[in-house]
Design a protein that fits this description.
247 residues; alpha/beta; 2 domains
């Protein structure tokens, strides 16, 4: 069966020059975007129960834009003024760039990794005797704490936000040829919203090993996988699949 409609379980890209826009025009597709999960911030009361004292930490490890947003949200709610001398350790350039929303870049000490937290290992070790704080959600990749422990630094985790299943009840009677998932949480959201979901002719696209495992566990058939050597991005994987159908 040919592909005409696709639902991507993420927010719509801000730019109309995204790969999905090109895919849509080239193959005359209907592509909709809808986050299957969303983030909710913990309250100041919930954070206080973790007995985290922000003044104890001069080093903040930031692994995502959500971590940036909720660190500054909760410090403001708790009326804690983040000192100018605070050092920020950003997992990627994208996170470091986003940090400029809250701090004057040239006046802060900001260290940037390539993509992974262990890219910062040499820099972490320069401040090995200091304390580090990792703002995070309730769900944290196991590789991150393992990596920080292996580096031998003194760090603590502060859960500042949680991942929540979105309400998708308005999609109950809407059919798409392809559903695109980027995380196990997306698969979980599908099954919580539609416990009687039957795949039938719906194609499932899964990005990453963790998402594939979640789909397999849910007994869903995966028709499109990314990343692969031939298709490093999801849009490329979808296009490759469409070409095999002769769309």
């Amino acid at each position: 069966m040919k592909v005409k409609t696709i639902l991507v379980s993420q927010p719509e890209p801000a730019s109309d020059k995204s790969p999905y826009s090109r895919l849509k025009e080239k193959h005359k597709l209907k592509i909709d975007f809808r986050p299957f999960i969303h983030v909710e911030g913990l309250t100041a009361k919930e954070v206080r129960l973790q007995k985290i004292n922000f003044s104890d930490y001069n080093n903040i490890i930031l692994t995502s834009r959500n971590a940036v947003d909720h660190f500054f949200r909760i410090t403001e709610e708790m009326r804690y003024k983040v000192p100018d001398a605070t050092k920020y350790f950003c997992q990627s350039e994208a996170v470091a760039y986003y940090l400029q929303k809250y701090v004057v870049y040239r006046k802060r000490k900001i260290y940037v990794g390539d993509k992974r937290i262990n890219d910062l290992e040499a820099i972490f070790k320069k401040f090995q005797k200091e304390r580090f704080l990792l703002p995070s959600s309730d769900v944290l990749k196991p590789s991150i704490p393992t990596c920080l422990d292996d580096m031998g630094i003194n760090w603590d985790r502060a859960q500042l936000y949680r991942t929540v299943v979105s309400d998708l009840s308005d999609l109950r009677d809407v059919y798409y040829d392809v559903l695109v998932f980027f995380s196990p949480s997306g698969i979980e959201s599908l099954l919580k919203n539609f416990p009687d979901f039957q795949q039938k002719n719906t194609r499932i696209a899964a990005y990453g090993n963790a998402t594939e495992k979640a789909a397999d566990k849910a007994k869903l058939r995966i028709d499109i996988k990314a990343p692969t050597p031939e298709s490093p991005s999801m849009s490329m994987a979808i296009e490759k699949y469409i070409r095999t159908l002769g769309n």
